Every structure is written in structure tokens, then in C-alpha cells.
Amino acid sequence: MNDLIATARKAQISWSANPIARSAALSAVAKSFITHRDQMVDLMVDEVNKPITEARGEFARAVAILEYFSQAVLDPDGTSIPTLDPNLILSLRRPYGVAGLITPWNFPLAIPLWKAAPALAVGNAVIIKPSEFATKTALFLQELMNKTLPQGIFNVLPGGSEVGAELVDSADLISFTGSAKVGRGIVARAAALGKPVQAEMGGHSPAIVLPDADLELLASHIQIGAFSYSGQKCTATRRIIIVGNEKRKSEVIDSLVAGAEKLISGDPRDEKTFLGPLIHSDSYKNYCAAVASAREVGSVISGGRIDETGGNLPSATLTDSIPPVHQLMCEEVFAPITHIASVSTTDEAIALANAVLYGLTASIHTSDLEASLRISKRLETGMVKVNGPTAGVDFHAPFGGDKDSSYGMREQGKASLDFYTHTQTITVNSGTRKFQ
Ligand code: NAD
Q1: Which of 50, 224, 268, 401 has the maximum number of C-beta atoms within 10 A of its C-beta?
Q2: Cβ of residue 294 lying under 6 Å from some atom of ligand 1
Q3: Residues 392-407 pLDDT 10s
């Protein structure tokens, strides 16, 4: 570890000194990526069971992230502050040195890049500790980056939790994405060492369905929000809160069930597949336990099929009537299982949406713009989607949650440049002024 840090630290000095070269290098990397699209997509499909259509989407996003941050390099990096003429006070954003990036397996290309690209853009070197389940994709990413970037600037350090812990102790700042349990430990350790740290963690995102929501649109949003990539997204819809009377509830449920039953579980290489196998058998056990538990305390109204072949293949699962305080309604199960609840008023819907420790994202489904804004402002979440799936992020907008979902500054967009820099104030006095 010490050698890697020393090499990265040395390479970072010249990297940080030339923003024009950094912009050109990141732009060149983006261009070079395009010629390796099929290899990268195949790797993601094979390594983390990402359905091929989603893997292509992730690849396109990776290129867009690199292009965006290649331009962000040249944005103003500070401000001038009024003072006595002809003196000058400058407030500059400076890189820290070596950024330690600890990443999960579910976006094996996009997450390492949405951390690394802004860190590199502002002049840091990076060391990525990828998930044990996404090592091959990370190593291929390193191979591509190092064809263009100066040696020592972009590094991948494979390994498990102990390697991640060592990186927390060695890097100058830490950006983590993963489970809340691991994230909280990393935040505590980094803070004890006095290092800047950000952590993006789990979620239990609600979709609030108002009485005027279009049911066809809603079904399509829930398909993506709850079930794309087999529900293995931090932003996945975990609860659907229907506002209205019994008749409306049963209409909404009919539409959601019809939508969910259309979704095909199968081989991620097949273009028609919507849900591939879960990442590993422990995750599949959690899915099976959640289905069994839902049958016990409420009902499973769609999906819930158990794969007896050992293939870890889930189906799009909707449940109903789970008690609001039950663990299923509060804790993240990283699988395609989503719970429906119904309430009579918007106030009750907001209270239920906020009744969890997580606060990553939420969606509101309505044609009433005023209601959507009013509700958005009362939701304890970092992000709100009106008439869209909870899942899905914009690489050029701030991303992050409230409460137990996140810690520290936002990722993505211009917001991410703040995390990877600290402020230095330089006061320049004219050479003729005497201090008395
Ligand atoms: P995880 O917490 O098990 O692992 C994440 C990373 O942390 C891996 O690289 C792992 O090796 C490393 N790690 C584990 N223990 C460590 C330790 N003690 N010290 C340092 N590093 C350590 O998470 P996962 O299973 O890879 O990913 C799934 C989780 O990630 C879900 O909870 C999901 O909600 C969350 N997630 C959040 C976001 C977000 O942006 N909020 C995005 C994707 C995934």
C-alpha cells in the first residue's frame, strides 16, 4: 500500500499542475472507451449479471461522465474577493492529493467513474478499491485508463474489506458507496483520522401514487424503479404508497400486477431479459426469506417464485398488507421485492414515506404539479422524481440522500468537484504597502 500511495502521490504533482493536459487526457479517454464498448458490456453482463440492455446504458453513461468532467476541468476554480486596490484576495480550490475510492458491485463501471472523473478533473490521483464481485470490470477499466493517462494517476487495488480498511487509513480523502453498515464504520474511521469522507449508502425508497396518477405510466415507472436489474439498486422503489379509496387501490394494484407479470426473468445475455440472477446465493437467500416473511405477515400478490435450480433467479415480486412497522417496510432487501400500502390522505402518505431511517430518493405520481411540489418539500429524501422511476440518476446533477442513506457532500455534477478540493485563500499585497 505504501508504495502505491507514494507512486500516486508523485504522479499527482505534475497531473495537478496542468489543467489543459488534464482536460485533453480525460477527453481522449472518453474517445478511446468507445472502441471497447462490446468488451466492457460483455464483462459487466458476465461478472455482475447485468442485463445486456442495462449494461449498454451503463457504458453510455460512463462515456458521458468522462466527457462531462473533461470539460469541467476548465471551469473557474475559485473566486476573487474585494480588498484594497491594488491588492488581491483569491480563494482557490486545490486538490487533496490521493483520493481513496471504495465501490460496490452493482454499477461496476459507472460508480468508479463518477467518483474518479471529478477527483481526476480537479487534479487528484485516485486509488479504487472495487467490490470483490466486480474486480474484472475494474481491472479492465484500469487497463483502458492507463493507455491514455500518465502512469500512477489511476490505480485499482483489488481485495476485500481489509484492503478497503487499509485504503481508508492511507489515502488523503475517502469516497465510499455501499451498504449502510460498512459505510458507517468507514465514516467513523476517516473522521477519527481527520480525513474528508463522503458515503453513499442504502435506501428504502417510496413511490407515492396520488388519486389522479395515470395508471399505464405508473406501471412503466414501477417496472423500472422496482424491478430493473432485479431491484439491485440503492434507488430502487421498495414501497408503493397508494392514496385513495378501496376501489382506486384495487385499480392501481391490477395495473401494477399486470405490469410486473410481463417482466421476464432469465439469462442477462438475452435482450428480452428484464431480471437476471441475483449477484450471489446469500443475496438470493435474503430474497427467499423476504418472500416467506411477506407471506407470513401479509400477502404476495405477484411473483415470489423461488428458483429451485440453484440459479439465484428471482421474479418481480409485489406484496400487500405488510404492517407498516414490520422490518420489510423499513430495511433494505437488495432484490426485486416491493411492498404496497394504502392510505386515505396525502398527509398519511408523507408520514409513511418518511417513517424509515433511510432518505435516498422518492417518486410522486400525479398530474397535479402544485401537489407534487408541496409533497416534494415535505419528503425527507435527497432526491425526488415526479412522474418518473425512483431509480436512475443524472450524472450532471447533485446525487445523494438524507438521514442514514448518505454522509457528507453530494456526488456527481459540479457538486462533486467541491468534495475533491479544499479551499486555499491567497492574499496578495502590493509590494509598496508597509505593515505597521
Ligand atoms: P458493501 O458495503 O458490502 O461493500 C462496498 C465496498 O466496501 C466493497 O468494495 C467492499 O469490499 C468494501 N468494504 C467492505 N467492508 C469494508 C471495510 N470494513 N472497510 C473498507 N471497505 C470495506 O456493499 P455492496 O454489497 O458491494 O453493495 C450493495 C450496497 O450498496 C447496497 O446497500 C446499496 O444500497 C448500496 N449502494 C448505494 C449506492 C448509493 O449511491 N447510495 C449506490 C449503489 C449501491
Answers
A1: 50
A2: no
A3: 989 999 999 999 999 9
